[in-house]
């Protein structure tokens, strides 16, 4: 879907932001770029839609070099969500969402239906919100509009540059959950930049950890947790004891509040399973059931396990 071949970026002041990057992002994947400040993650993201031009190498989308696309068509076909949200303050919510579809000359009826569908998708009643101005919305609601505006013209790719980092912790966690649920429906290729490892582990199908303009490791959350390539990755992930013998699947179930037992066709594992066994099962399935004494007592998915680990991290930090 998106392929980087020996991509480098050097700015006019001589700073090399990205060094000979080779990377493939798969269709429909939620791919996270993470690293400390100055690691090159945002530069890497912005090179995809040519907000920053490449110095060397090539980026391909669907096998075609991005330099061969008309730049306006390229950007119209890629959704973009910023930390700053950047809604037009004097335009209504529906006018904000309609910007790119109007540029693409969609019919008024098609645009109206698309706006209604998108607002419904993020839990905002179209009749209530379509005519409001951005200033009439909370920060979390504005960021939801930023997300649906990026989806308005139904792009294959959505770029998200630290979109939730300016929000309070409760709004941020809610939007993380919302984007995960939304992705199950829309199945876009999402490239997401963050500096927060907890957020990366929760959201990413795969994660690329960057340092000094280079990729240190790319892998699934499980691969990074169990097989960090060096001490930098190990320390960046955090202090959670992921091999903890105290792992208890029943505790995870109690935290997820998901007791839906409609598990037809879904594999079931014993509630006594270890963390590694649970992650192994979830690497093959989106969700699995857990049984105790021969009875299914609930179901879990990868996000609920990651959230459990993150809660343990937070609790460990409080106790230090």
Care to describe what's here?
- It comes from Bacillus rugosus.
- Keywords: ATP-binding, Nucleotide-binding.
- This is ABC transporter ATP-binding protein.
- This protein is an alpha/beta fold and 320 residues long.
- 40% of the residues lie in helices and 24% in strands.
- The chain has 14 helices and 13 strands.
- It has helices at residues 41-48, 71-76, 93-97, 99-103, 108-121, 126-129, 139-151, 169-186, 197-203, 221-226, 231-237, 249-256, 275-282, 302-319; strands at residues 2-10, 16-25, 30-34, 56-61, 64-65, 78-82, 157-161, 189-194, 206-211, 214-219, 268-270, 287-292, 295-301.
- The strands form three sheets. Strands 6-7-8-3-9-10 form a six-stranded mixed β-sheet, with helices on both faces.
- Helix 9 (197-203) runs antiparallel to helix 14.
- The longest helix is centred in the middle third of the chain and has 18 residues, at 169-186.
- The mean pLDDT is 87.
The largest beta-sheet arranges its strands as: 6-7-8-3-9-10
| Tally of DSSP helical segments | 14
Distance between the first and last residues' Cα = 44 Å
Helix content: 25-40%
Largest sheet: 6 strands, mixed
**Average of pLDDT:** 87
**Rg for CA atoms:** 21 Å
- Regions with pLDDT < 50 over 5+ consecutive residues? none
Protein name: ABC transporter ATP-binding protein
Keywords: ATP-binding, Nucleotide-binding
